[in-house]
Write a structure and sequence with these properties.
The complex is a heterodimer. Chain A is an alpha/beta fold. Chain A contains 15 helices and twelve strands. Chain A has an eight-stranded mixed beta sheet, sandwiched between helices. In chain A, strands 2-1-4-5 form a four-stranded antiparallel beta sheet. By secondary structure, chain B is mostly helical. Helix content of chain B is 68%, strand content 0%. In chain B, α6 runs antiparallel to α8, α8 packs antiparallel against α10 and α10 packs antiparallel against α12. Classes of the chains: A alpha/beta, B mainly alpha. At the A-B interface, α1, α5, α6, α7 and α8 of A face α1, α9 and α10 of B.
Chain lengths: 372, 307
Amino acid sequence: MSDTAAIGVRPLADTAALHHPRGGEGSDPGRNHSDPAPLNPGPLLEAQGLVKHFPLKGGLIRSPGAVRAVDAVSFSLYPGEILGIVGESGCGKSTTARLLMNLIVPTAGTVRFDGRIAGSRELPLRAFRRQVQMVFQDSYASLNPRLTVEESIAFAPTVHGMASDEAVRRARSLLDRVGLEPARFAGRYPHELSGGQRQRVNIARALALQPRVLILDEAVSALDKSIEAQVLNLLLDLKDELGLSYIFISHDLEVVRFVATRVLVMYLGRIAEVGPTEALYTGSRHPYTTALLRSMLSMDPDRRTESAPVAGDPPNPINPPSGCRFHTRCAFAEGVCSAVDPALAPVETGHAAACHMAIASSGHSKADARAA
Amino acid sequence: MLMSRPVAEGPGQAPGLASGQAMSEIVRSPGYWATVWRRVLRDPVAVGAALVILAIVLIAILAPYIAPQDPYKGMTLRRLRPPGTEGFPLGTDELGRDMLSRLIFGARLSLFMGVTPVILALFLGSAIGIAAGYAGGWVNSILMRTIDVFFAFPSVLLAIALSGALGAGVLNGLISLTVVFIPPIARVAESVTTSVRSRDYVEAARASGAGPLTIVRVQVLGNVMGPIFVYGMSLVAVSMILASGLSFLGLGVKPPEPEWGLMLNTLRTAIYTQPLLCALPGVMIFVTSISFNMLTDGLRSAMDIKA
C-alpha cells in the first residue's frame, strides 16, 4: 500500500458509509451507523464508569481526601461521529480525555475500543494507542523543541517499528495533508512556526499512527478565531476523508455546536446531559445546560444576556454537594435535589439528562410537567 | 480489520507530492546546538576562556616536547631560584627542579583530576537524576532522599573523608571526587527532568505507545542534557581546586609527581623567601578554573534561547 493512500487506508466505501451529516438532523447515534460497519456495529470507543480521584497530599499515613475529578462517567463514541464534551473549567473534561487515552490510571472503570478493554490481553495498550490519538491544547508545549517537525511526526511510527526513512516519508505526506508544504516545514523547529501551523503539526503527529479516533482536548481553543476556523475545517475534512471519529473537548459552545454531532455536558466530574447537538442546544433538559447555553454571547441585540445565568464558582470537587451536584447553584433546587443523586435518565431517544425534573416520578414538583 | 492494519506499510508507488520530494529540497533550520554554537562564538569572553583552556590542554598533551627540562630532576645546589634565572625562566622549586617544566607537566594531572571526576559524575549523576525525575513517585523519593544524605557533608569534607578512608593516590582521589559530584549533578538532572516530564510532548510520546527508555532517549535527553552539562562544566573548576586541596593535604597525588596543588603544598615553606615562586602553581589553578567558569557562563547564556 502506498504511503499517501496508507493514511487514508480505510476504503472509500467505508468512509462514505461513516460519513455523518453534521447539524440538526436530530440524529440518534444508534441509527446513524446501523447499516454500515458490518464488523463492529457497537460503539467505537466506550467509557464505562470512569472514576478518577486524585488523592490529596498532606496526611501522613492516610490521605485527607481526594479531588473527585471524574466520577462515574460512562459514554460511547460511535463510528463517524463527533462527540463534543463541554463544561466549565475544572469539570473534568481534560481528565476524561487523559483517562480515555490511558495516560492516567483510572481509580475505577474501563475504556473499551471496539468492544475490547484497552490494556487487556485482547487489546494491549500499544495496539490501543494506534487506534486512539490525542491533540493537546497547547500547541507549543506538545511539540519537543529539540526535534524538527518531521522528527516529531515520525516518532510514533518508528516506535511501532517503521523504518525511519519510511516514517519520515509518511511525516512529509502528512504535513502536506494538513496543509503545510513539506519542503518548507519538515526541517523546521516548533518555535519557528505560528500557533496554527504548530497545531496542524500536532494533528499530523496524531494521525501518524493512522488512528480511528482523535481526542481533541481544546485543540483549537488557543488559536485566533480565523485560524481556529481553518483548523476546524481541516479537522472536518480529515474526518470525512479518513473516516475518523472525534471526541471534541471544548469550553466554546459555539464551536461545539458547529462541529459536534452529539454533545455531552459535564459538571463537577459528572455527566449532566448528553444528546444530539441540536436537540440539546434547543431543548436542554438540565438547568445547568440551559444556564451554560444562556451564557453564550448573543449576536442579537434583542436577546441580551441580562443576568448571569449561573452565579458563583463550581463547588469544591473535594467534597462535592450531596444529591445532585448542581443543586447549590440551581434555580429549581428542591428537597429531593440535595437528597437524591439523579441518574442519567433518557428524555428522548439518544438524549439523557441527570436532573430530577427530567425523571417522571422523582418527587420534584416540576418533574411531571417536564418529563417526557 | 483493526489489528491487521500494520503501521509499516510495504513499499509502493509513492503518489502525489511525495514522489517529487527529494530529501535535499527540504529547508533545514539550524538546530538548537548550531544556534548555541553561533551565539558562543559571538561572546568574546567565552571564546577567550575557551582558547585559554585549549592552550592548557595542548600544553598538557605536548608536555614532553615543550618542557625545557626534566621535571623530576633536581639539584640541591640550585634550590629556590627566583623566576628569571638563566636556564630556569620560572625559577626552581625547593628541590631545585625546573618550575616551568613542572608546571607544564603538572597541567596533565591537574586537568585530569579536574575533568575526569566530573565526567564520571555526569554519567552516574544524570542517570540517577533522570531516572528519579522521569519515574517520579516513590522511586524519586528513595533516590533523591538517598542523594540528600550526601548534602549533609560539605563537599570538601566529604572528599577528604573519602580520600582519607580510601588512602592516598590518584585513583582514590578520583573516586572520592566522583562521589562528591554525583549528588549535585543528580539533583540538577532530577529537577530538569521533572520539569520536562510533565510537558505535553512527553504525554504525547506516551500516548503514541513509546516505552520509557525510548521517551527518555528521544524526547527527554535532548532537553535536559544542556543544563546538566553546563552545570557539570562549572564543577570542573571546583574539582580542580578540590583535587589540589587533596594533594595539598597529601591525600591525592603523591610526590614527586608534578601537580599544581601538590606543588603549592611543597612550596609553602618557602613563602617568605620566594613568595612569587610559591604563587605560580596557584596562578595556574586560578587561570584554569576561572577559564572554565567563564566558558560555563558563556555557554549558559548562549543556551538561554527564548522559544
